[in-house]
Amino acid sequence: MPCPQLISSLKTTSHNALIPGMEAFTKLTAIAAPLNLANVDTDMIIPKQFLRTIKRTGLGVNLFNDMRYEENGNEIADFVLNHAAYRKAQILVGGENFGCGSSREHAPWALLDFGIRCIIAPSFADIFYNNCFKNGILPVALPQEQVDTLMTMATAGKEISIDLAAQKIESFSFEIDAFRKDCLLNGLDDIGLTLEKSDAIAAYEKKNKNERPWL
Question: Is the per-residue pLDDT at 46 higher than 90?
Fold first, then answer.
């Protein structure tokens, strides 16, 4: 159980570069980048050489690094995120089993730092899927035919609209765990959830100190 000093520390540091506050997700209408590949793993999303940092910021420039840049650092012209239309994409439409591979949380950090707030795919790797929610990214699994429709829209450069409260992407409905939905709508990561209980935690610690001062 966190002590009051820890609660105070979290309040102080929850918006710095190490532990940024999570931005709420409600509605989004934005350009979507089409990445029509199955089994996009976390090493493709953010290669292992960029895992030395514990900050959540600064990784966007290396998102899909080996697919996005040549060895000399020049951009690979035909990679989707290097196209002018998708440089500021906030939605990514991908293939099945998105986010497979190692469990590195740097993968959603890199996506979010680039600007991606929602990933749409037929299926996701479980750990990556869970990590997305913890970092303010909405991962949505839809049937392949619906993903194909959105992929076509993305390829054509059309914006895609998402309404989390209504659980709609364009005309398609999607399922989401009620707790995860509430956290996204209110911008609550694990730290935010703890801070919601800060008064109760402080009261418990005060009572515990009075009743068991030897601890």
Answer: yes
In the sheet where 118-121 sits, what is the strand order?
138-141, 118-121, 91-93, 27-34, 159-163, 168-169, 172-173
**What residues does each domain of the chain span?**
1-21+189-210, 29-177
Alpha carbon of residue 91 to chain centroid: 11
- Beta 27-34 vs 172-173: how paired, if at all? unpaired
The identity of residue 75, as a single letter, is E
What span, in angstroms and rounded, lies between the C-alpha atoms of 208 and 196?
Answer: 20
Q: Please check whether residue 34 is in contact with residue 155, taking contact to mean a CB–CB distance below 8 angstroms.
A: yes
Mean pLDDT of the chain: 87
Angle between helices 178-186 and 126-134 (to 10 degrees): 40
What token pair was written down for 54? Answer: 């514990």
pLDDT tens, position by position, 192-209: 555 555 667 667 676 777
The pLDDT of residue 211 is above 90: no
Fold of 29-177: Aconitase; domain 4 (3.20.19)
198-211 vs 4-13: helix axis angle to the nearest 10? 150
Distances (CA, A) of 107 to 50, 134, 136, 138: 10, 12, 13, 14
Please give the biggest Cα pair distance in the chain.
Answer: 68
